[in-house]
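Example record for the data management plan.
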Amino acid sequence: MPDDKKESGIHTDFSEDMTYGEYLKLDNLLTSQNRLSGHHDEMLFIIIHQVSELWMKLILHELTSAIQAIQADKMQSAFKMLARVTKIQTQIIQAWDVLSTLTPAEYLEFRDKLGKASGFQSFQYRKIEFALGYKTKHILKIYEQEKELYEDLKGAFQAPSIYDVSIQALARAGFAINSSLLNRDYSITYSGDESVAKAWEEVYRNVDRYWNLYQLAEKLVDVEDWLQQWRFRHMKTVERIIGFKKGTGGSSGVNYLRHVLDHRFFPELWNLRTTL
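Corresponding structural encoding:
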């Protein structure tokens, strides 16, 4: 049996001290799983999505700070943040493995209770897309009825992405970047530029000289790689559970998820794998 005397220093009187549960606000956190159907498997559905939203909050926290660090030429700090983002992404990807234990018959037991609510409406996911440079203006209409949220998303929509500030870093390093890119309309999804392609190719041909930019490029590729893997697992999980039905939010479901898999956030960094 364990010797309780060895743990005699454990604090047990919290009459004047904050507890673990109070610090984490567990009363609020653990009472936010309210099933609308009463069906056993709805608990799985709610928790998976809530946990994913918490991880996305942390991704946004890291991405926002990484953008600021790159703008300030604090590359080592940015690298640490982006490395953490990719570790978080592995957690979100694995969440799909848990959700995929939900069968089509089980989901049908409570799907109608969702109404028009859908993961398609996740504002944090949209902010991640915006931070990475994928700007879709029509998406903003979903949030117009929530003024504060709408203004927050609009600000993120118009802000430079992490790739925009990386291109600016290339210019500061002396590369001849197309001047129109350095103060462009950031609400337009970036589609590529020859001057950026040439700059990244030079970085990859002279790794020792441009070590920080080389590391930045590889960190960006890591983030996009894991995001696309997340998108793929999302698509396959949706197909496994509802097939090719429309999403509850009105999207085309699997067909929409397949379409976004074709998008590249950092096109030159992928193209140079072929051209280098």
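Summary line stored alongside the record: The CA atoms of residues 201 and 275 lie 8 Å apart.
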